[in-house]
């Protein structure tokens, strides 16, 4: 069984609606795979790059993605400019866009002490961070408690979020022998990083804090492939400062299945 369609799970990028891109990329990949099978060629990266990559680059999906390059830029200015930008780009086929200066994700993240300023003292925040590290906990619960968020008392009701539903309905177990799709590029960066925002942000609890502040743990069976860890890593990559320290790779398993 193969999972096909690199765009599956995403809406058409230019229109922001419809799943034609997901379908098309799935069909293109299937054609590439059939071609390799017919020619008795192995599924190597190079062969798939030729059989699928070339088809994809020649398709309308590529053209549409190029036209949509700046479709979402307006969101850097706010929600309304973002929506206007998407509309403008969509209606003009990418001729007109709402532009914005886009920083590197890790440079745009504000430090926790700044976000908590005036509400939690810096030394108190450090103490909370140190405690969380020793206990192997994330920090967000303690921060929310301290900020006065009301406690959620279990009431016996089951809340099924959209994310839970995806996990229940569509998580395909990764086959053994494949590497994890989430990887921490430079372990030392993670050891020096506090708080470890990738673990704080991971709503699937697939990333959990490393022991005593060490490299975080990753459990691929809990990952919902949302990408939040990629965009919320606070440390730039030495070899490529455009990226953070989380590498999101192709991998086995995933979210999509017949039930989903
Ligand atoms: C991998 C993936 C791919 C997706 N792809 C697309 C796509 O391509 N196009 C598209 O349109 N949509 C897509 N979606 C769906 C879209 O992201 C969701 O539909 C939307 O974000 C769901 O919002 P929600 O409010 O229904 O629930 P959720 O996002 O699940 O939010 C529930 C919130 O409630 C909080 N919460 C849960 N329990 C409690 C509690 N007891 N007390 C307080 N808070 C609680 C959770 O922490 C969470 O923040 C995708 C989702 C995933 C996971
Ligand atoms: S992946 Fe990024 S945010 Fe997570 S611990 Fe490593 S450096 Fe910190
Ligand atoms: S992709 Fe989402 S669910 Fe998976 S590890 Fe990253 S933050 Fe967690």
Ordered list of secondary-structure elements with their pairings:
Elements: H1 20-38, H2 45-58, H3 60-67, H4 79-92, H5 105-108, H6 112-115, H7 122-135, H8 140-146, H9 162-170, E1 182-184, H10 187-191, H11 197-201, E2 207-208, E3 217-218, H12 228-231, E4 246-248
Antiparallel strand pairs: 1-4, 2-3
Helix pairs in contact: 1-2
The structure holds flavin-adenine dinucleotide (FAD) and iron/sulfur cluster (SF4) (2 copies).
One iron/sulfur cluster binds at residues 182, 201-202, 204, 206-207, 223-229.
The percentage helix is 40-55%
CA-CA gap between termini: 15 Å
Radius of gyration: 21 Å
Biggest sheet strand line-up: 1-4
List keywords for this structure.
260 residues, mainly alpha, 2 domains, two-stranded antiparallel ribbon, two-stranded antiparallel sheet, 12 helices, 41% helix, 4% strand, binds flavin-adenine dinucleotide, binds iron/sulfur cluster
Question: Would you kindly provide a written description of the structure presented here, covering whatever features stand out?
Answer:
- Helix content is 41%, strand content 4%.
- The chain is mainly alpha-helical and 260 residues long.
- It folds into two domains: 73 residues, no CATH class; 158 residues, no CATH class.
- The chain has a two-stranded antiparallel sheet. A two-stranded antiparallel sheet has the order 2-3.
- Strand 2 and strand 3 form a beta hairpin.
- The chain is globular, with a radius of gyration of 21 Å.
- The protein starts with 19 loop residues before the first helix and ends in a 12-residue tail after the last strand.
- The structure holds flavin-adenine dinucleotide and iron/sulfur cluster (SF4) (2 copies).
- The site of flavin-adenine dinucleotide has 14 residues, from helix 9.
